[in-house]
Amino acid sequence: MAEVPTSLVLRRPDDWHVHLRDGAMLRAVLPATARTFARAIVMPNLRPPVTSVDAAEAYRSRILESLPEGISFEPLMTAYLTDDLDPDELARGFAQDVFRAAKLYPANATTNSAAGVSDLSRISSVLTCMEAIDMPLLIHGEVTDPDVDVFDREALFIERHLKPLRQRHPRLRIVLEHITTEESAIYIREAYQSGDDRIAATITPHHLHLNRNAMFMGGLRSDFYCLPVVKRECHRRALVNAATSGLPCFFLGTDSAPHPRSGKESSCGCAGIFNSLHALESYAVIFEQENALGRLEGFASEHGPNFYRLPLNEDTVTLVRRDQQVPLKLREPPSPPTGEESLPETEWPVLFHGGEILPWSIECGC
Ligand code: NCD
Ligand code: ZN
Which range of residues forms the domain containing residue 236? Predict the structure, then answer.
């Protein structure tokens, strides 16, 4: 076993999939992302969803207004695809660098996806347009058929929808987001190995740490419930192998998805894990276990920008091998501007790794 370094200087990473929400929750969780990440692909599943250039610009302004002073962070906005989104609106937003990508939620696949796409045939003109302008398509890859077992929905999506979609639109660049299965890892790896650089996948920290037992450990643990749902251990292992492989087709996307406590602690609890505050440290634990710390920078800071054709960040973050006790909940969120509501303490999201000791810490002034 190689000696573990005591510190690691990395090009500052980006988060290629995050839910920042809006209003009081946005103000509460944004510092957690901006503390570590220079840029983030911001999910558009607000209520109502972000389906126009104006809405994306307004949301981007609200994010920038919520940034703590002195922190640099660039939100990269996405469009939420619906059955009737106008391709011209998408192309205009992409040309103006407002939309960096468009997100495909199969209708009712996950949180706030009711307005998503009911059938891929409904958006073929949008996909043709995206293919022509080289705009990335981000996919929540699960079938929504209620007859399909929830643990099989991702693997079936590849067969039923992704493969035919890629045949119809071979030039389309796609990110299969937050992959959770061996089937997805193999599909992406084989595409890359066959010389196809038009598809990649993001992998979350929680899918690298958890298998499905986590949701039932000593009782029903809604804090470990997210979508796509965590799978068997063999799938977790496949994801760990993919993330630490060094292959450019796999990169960091936290899918940090905060919900108010009342949304998680309910008889019909919301899907989503809030992990952004310690995401990099969490990935470092896995890379260290795999003796692959030398590949963390590629995964966290290089493969994503290369896929999105954006410059690499020039500044750095330093991870030091020093224990940190993760609190159970978010620290006190910043106070809201006068006249606006704050997030009541009872609603603060619980942190991924809450209560654990992580062996890595980010060295910074915060
Ligand atoms: C996300 C959310 O809460 O918005 N939930 C989740 O479990 N990941 C939606 C999503 O990305 O599926
Ligand atoms: Zn997500």
Answer: 7-364
